[in-house]
Design goal:
CATH architecture of one domain: Roll
CATH superfamily of one domain: Glutamine synthetase, N-terminal domain
Helix content: 40-55%
CATH topology of one domain: Ubiquitin-like (UB roll)
Radius of gyration: 28 Å
Structural class: alpha+beta
CATH class of one domain: Alpha Beta
Distance between the termini: 23 Å
Shape: globular
């Protein structure tokens, strides 16, 4: 099949697929039906067991064997009644994806087959750990690893076409107890939040607060491209990103896609995604077109941070699986297409106490507002002191194409509070007086001469990587394809550190609200450099941020180095979130992942150039040369304009070959380097060389006639998806 006919066939498929029809129960009837809830436990066991389990969850203590056996019996009865034959411990290794090893319930009572599932089987399993990334914590021969149930995250049933599997959310640890996953550090960071937030509540005189939970609600952006186009684009199929491609005549220029009418085929996909998520207890709330063509978003409601992390992994898996049913491929790369917006996930974060109160919600009396300011100040302090660590957690090769690109927050971590809160900070720390809006819905703060606090009185700042949005913070720099577990763990740890520091300062001033007030003033004065209300995209902000001493880590190699510092080690170890070895392993894994990703992209673009772009260019040159020769043979007088296309094409081919050779030369120069040095060189030399090769290939594309161009063009992939 010729290049033109292959693309023609793909176009016919992409634009001719019918809208998929599926049936599903209503939201209220189906929500959580595939999750094992307290109501299900109550149905299959005694009220005494239910009470013991709820008490165990509240205390945070481990399950004893007898209780575990009772729960296991209830779980297997519930699951097998729903046709489930296998179970697995579902965990999050440091690959960023999820992992599972299925075991059958099948056993024999001597003669007859039975379904067997014990408390020991529920609590722990032993998958082979030798093939998962460990960052040097383990030798190859140390294969033993353990998964352990996280009872705070619901057990669920994952349905497939020909069966269903019981999935037990778990952590993954080594034989020696080292965390080999992303979940265990997140759970530890939630304990750090609880410890420090409760301690702060006590100093605020709020004795009723006995537990505090970090909460999260990520917004997930993604692209949908028809499978027929992906089949003809090796770069999108392998890396999730187009390594080359000239811009479409219209990208997002007219700004007509954002919040536009959702295409019928896409809406059917969204509806089926939501139906699948509802059964798993994932509260999908919002769906809409995003800014770029064929880009969309799904947002979920808040829940506990560890459950939110599990749910976001499920969201990404369901998006991909359901997309396939509708003839799409779901791209979760941060920058699938150059020249249009990339994708992230805005990670909304807050804290909630055991009374159901949001600790970042401005209150309705003076004491509650002082409490709000205390938790706010501790959060800002944590971000200020540990901005480099937070930046490291969202560093990836894919995110490097997005951060700071006039579509996403810059690589400089700053905090946006809004006009009124920023003015209050200035007032508290002795700066300018607050100019109040008499029409705003306000709450009297009532401490000394403090100005009033509005619940929602300011515009949002989309250029800020960490913005306060009324009653929560929005960590806007997390990449689309990332697990949110490590960014959440780092944010929790940084805020816990801020609350610890605030508690120490309160104690130094004595007791009562005057001591709290004095400590809040000190903490806000320390943290003021990280508060920024302006345009984070501007060149002036880069200069100003450096003047303020804020870290500007421009790419992933620079960012991940922040994990390999004494300050980072001290932060995570003093809060019991990561040991020094566990933190070093994550640094090492991120360096290796960056190098591997860049190396894969280098191989892919070389193959694209060698197997598609250059042959197509040479074919075009031959055709044009023959056309010129035929014209001359026929006695047609040719002028410079007649030869310009041929000359431009030849110059573009020469540039392409030079850029191709330069990539090889740079890669060769990197071969003697290792670790951080190699990552630095890859980021500063190889990545720019790959960008130059792409530019040369894109310059060739616009000169090659459509019938001789093999690869689907941007105009097709972005705008011809049915």
């Amino acid at each position: 099949m010729s290049a033109d006919s292959a693309r023609h066939a793909a176009r016919a498929l992409a634009t001719g697929r019918p809208t998929r029809v599926f049936s599903s129960a209503g939201v209220l009837q189906s929500f959580g039906c595939n999750t094992f809830r307290i109501a299900d436990l109550r149905q299959h066991t005694s009220s005494k067991v239910v009470a013991r389990f709820e008490a165990t969850l509240a205390s945070g203590e481990g399950l004893d064997k007898g209780l575990a056996d009772e729960i296991a019996r209830a779980v297997v009865a519930w699951a097998t009644a729903r046709g489930v034959s296998h179970y697995c411990h579902w965990f999050q290794p440091m690959t960023g994806a999820t992992a599972e090893k299925h075991d059958a319930f099948l056993a024999f009572d001597g003669v007859h087959p039975i379904a067997k599932f014990t408390g020991a089987m529920l609590i722990q399993s032993e998958p082979d750990a030798s093939s998962f990334p460990s960052g040097g914590m383990r030798s190859t021969f140390e294969a033993r690893g353990y998964t352990a149930w996280d009872p705070t995250s619901p057990i669920f049933i994952m349905e497939r076409t020909n069966g269903a599997t019981l999935c037990i959310p778990s952590v993954f640890i080594s034989y020696h107890g080292d965390a080999l996953d992303k979940k265990a550090p997140l759970l530890r960071s939630m304990r750090a939040i609880q410890r420090t937030a409760v301690a702060l509540a006590q100093r605020l005189g709020d004795s009723e607060v006995t537990a505090v939970t970090a909460t999260a609600g990520p917004e997930q952006e993604y692209f949908l491209v028809d499978k027929a186009w992906i089949a003809l684009r090796p770069d999108l199929a392998i890396t999730g990103r187009s390594q080359l491609g000239a811009p479409a005549p219209k990208g997002q220029t007219l700004e007509d896609h954002y919040f536009g009418s959702i295409p019928s085929r896409v809406l059917a996909f969204m509806q089926e995604v939501e139906a699948e998520l509802y059964k798993l207890g994932v509260a999908a709330k919002t769906r809409h077109n995003e800014v770029a063509p064929c880009q969309f978003e799904l947002a979920v409601l808040y829940t506990e941070a560890n459950v939110a992390a599990d749910h976001n992994q499920l969201v990404m898996e369901i998006l991909k699986r359901v997309a396939n049913r509708h003839g799409f491929v779901c791209l979760l790369h941060e920058k699938p297409f150059a020249g249009v917006n990339g994708s992230g996930k805005h990670l909304n974060w807050s804290m909630q106490d055991n009374l159901g109160r949001n600790l970042l919600e401005p209150g309705d009396n003076p004491q509650k507002n002082l409490s709000f300011l205390a938790y706010l100040a501790a959060t800002v302090l944590g971000v200020y002191r540990h901005a480099a660590v937070l930046r490291a957690t969202i560093g990836s090769h894919g995110n490097d194409f997005r951060l700071g690109a006039n579509e996403a927050p810059p690589a400089i971590l700053s905090v946006f509070l809004g006009n009124q809160l920023s003015a209050i900070v200035e007032h508290i720390t002795g700066g300018a007086a607050l100019i109040e809006d008499p029409n705003a819905a306000v709450i009297e703060l009532g401490v000394a001469s403090l100005p009033r606090v509005s619940r929602d009185n300011t515009d949002r700042n989309r250029t800020s990587p960490f913005a306060f949005t009324g009653n929560k913070f929005e960590f806007r720099a997390v990449g689309s394809g990332m697990s949110i577990s490590f960014p959440l763990a780092a944010l929790n740890t940084a805020v816990a550190d801020g609350m610890d520091e605030l508690c120490r300062r309160i104690d130094a001033h004595g007791k009562g609200l005057p001591a709290v007030w004095a400590a809040v003033r000190e903490v806000l004065a320390i943290s003021k450099p990280v508060i920024f209300e302006g345009n984070g995209y501007s060149a002036e902000w880069v200069v100003e941020a450096e003047r303020r001493g804020l870290p500007h880590l421009r790419n992933t190699p620079e960012a991940v180095a922040a994990l390999h510092t004494e300050a980072a080690t001290a932060l995570f170890t003093r809060h019991g979130v990561l040991t020094a070895d566990e933190l070093h392993s994550r640094y090492h894994i991120r360096v290796e992942r960056y190098l591997t990703t860049v190396a894969i992209e280098a191989t892919v673009i070389r193959e694209l150039v060698d197997q598609f772009v250059l042959p197509d260019a040479l074919s075009e040159r031959t055709a044009v040369s023959e056309s010129v020769a035929q014209a001359r043979a026929a006695g047609v007088e040719l002028d410079e304009s007649d030869l310009a296309h041929l000359q431009g094409l030849q110059a573009a081919i020469v540039s392409l070959r030079k850029a191709r050779a330069q990539v090889d030369a740079v890669e060769s120069s990197l071969s003697a380097l290792e670790g951080q040095d190699k990552a630095n060189a890859a980021g500063s030399k190889l990545v720019p060389a790959l960008a130059n090769l792409r530019a040369a290939a894109d310059a060739v594309e616009v000169l090659v006639a459509d019938q001789r161009w093999s690869l689907p063009r941007y105009r097709e992939m972005l705008f011809q998806n049915g």
